[in-house]
Design a protein that fits this description.
Distance between the termini: 32 Å
Structural class: alpha+beta
Number of domains: 4
Strand content: 5-15%
Number of strands: 9
Number of helices: 14
Helix content: 40-55%
Radius of gyration: 27 Å
Largest sheet: 5 strands, antiparallel
Length: 406
């Protein structure tokens, strides 16, 4: 499954995945977690799909995106500095941007490389893509392109390509189901956005792993726009929960100590007042942590665990209905609010089980299936099965006519 950007370096994910399916054929792996690295290697080692020219274009676009993000941070930083209120001079803007760039470069240097780029140096990328990096710097920064000497700025751009701090038009890739030797399902998720220097910028989202075991009988995982699923599972909107936590933390750490200081500070010496404020802030930190822990425990015990218990015993058809309902809930929320309607339209629903494999419950097509039955009959042709079993069983049309291309 794919979420985020539906394309990868200008090529639809559907095309890439079906090419991989054709290569994989009827072979497979013992464990599901072997499919992810194998698919990533296929993407990385497909020069016919992603030639050097596309990698150059990706490098140019990534550097522009990195610099655009820095310019946005510059604008927000200048808006938050009251001493710079009013008309800003070009000198002030250049000085602030130089400071921001130097800070970001220090941050990049202290951050590890992406796993698949661990052996690549920034100097090698800078040498390989020097022209594309220079062009991106000039096109994006224009008059700000000389705030740092050209060499350090180009090196910083190459360094940004190696890290997981900045992602351009990334896609999320979810692989779920069973390996040949597995009787319980697993799920792995990856983030990726391009190929540079013949290496794939990708990493596994380890926090989104799901393994069904004897001790962990069920899981509900949401990707992309997941706020309504979180609300359903945890009993509170994640954005609202974050606001409450930050408000309480700020009130305890800043607001309450200041109130106490204003009430009794005049009766204490300066040293005693300072000690009191320090002690109050320590207590505030403990109270905030205790409140967050208590609310998380309540949400888990009263909302998440009961739902997981029910999900663990639902039949397959009701699991499919639940998944569709959660997607519909997110779609409706987006429809009636000012958020972008990035979820909507017909919903595909499939069930994967050990015994039956993948079974479509609902599936949309961009064409009429009644007029294109040859498509259904030939769908698995690339894995060596000319007429799929369901087509033979339901007799979409005579096998001989299908073989003749009728």
């Amino acid at each position: 499954m794919v979420y985020g950007n539906a394309d990868f370096m200008g090529l639809p994910w559907e095309t890439v995945i079906k090419r991989y399916r054709a290569q994989l054929g009827r072979s497979g792996f013992r464990r599901l977690e072997e499919y992810g690295p194998d698919f990533l290697r296929f993407v990385e080692r497909s020069p016919s799909l992603f030639p050097a020219r596309l990698q150059n274009m990706y490098c140019y676009g990534f550097v522009r995106f990195w610099l655009w993000r820095l310019k946005r941070r510059l604008r927000l930083a200048l808006e938050d500095r009251p001493e710079l209120a009013g008309e800003l001079t070009a000198r002030q803007i250049r000085s602030a941007f130089k400071e921001l760039l130097e800070e970001d470069i220090r941050h990049l240097k202290g951050h590890p490389n992406l796993p698949r780029l661990a052996g690549v140096s920034a100097n090698s990328l800078k040498g390989r893509y020097r022209d594309d990096i220079r062009r991106a710097i000039v096109d994006e920064l224009e008059l700000l392109s000389d705030v740092l000497p050209r060499g350090p700025l180009e090196a910083a751009a190459a360094l940004a390509l190696l890290k997981d701090l900045y992602w351009g038009s990334e896609s999320g890739l979810v692989i779920s189901g069973f390996g040949r030797n597995e009787v319980l399902p697993r799920l792995r998720c990856y983030r990726l956005d391009g190929i540079v220097g013949g290496r794939l910028r990708a990493m596994e989202e380890r926090g989104k792993r799901s393994d069904i075991t004897a001790d962990n009988g069920a899981a509900v995982s949401a990707f992309a726009q997941s706020e309504m699923v979180s609300l359903f599972m945890n009993g509170v909107d994640p954005g609202f929960a974050d606001f409450i936590k930050s408000f309480v933390a700020k009130s305890f750490s800043d607001g309450y100590p200041e109130i106490v200081k204003n009430m009794i500070g005049s009766q204490l010496s300066r040293a005693k007042t300072a000690r009191m404020m320090s002690r109050l802030k320590q207590v505030a930190g403990k109270l905030t942590a205790a409140l967050e822990s208590a609310t998380d425990d309540y949400s888990r015990e009263m909302h998440w665990l009961p739902i997981i218990e029910i999900v663990n015993h639902l039949p397959k058809e009701e699991l499919a209905a639940m998944a569709e309902a959660l997607v519909n809930l997110t779609s409706f929320k987006r429809h009636v609010t000012k958020d972008a309607e990035t979820v909507g339209g017909p919903i595909d629903v499939a069930v994967i089980s050990r015994g039956d494999g993948l079974v479509w419950i609902k599936r949309k097509h961009y064409f009429s299936t009644e007029l294109n039955r040859h498509f259904l009959a030939n769908y698995y042709y690339d894995v060596g099965e000319r007429i799929p079993p369901y087509a033979k069983k339901n007799r979409f049309f005579p096998v001989e006519r299908a073989r003749q291309g009728a």
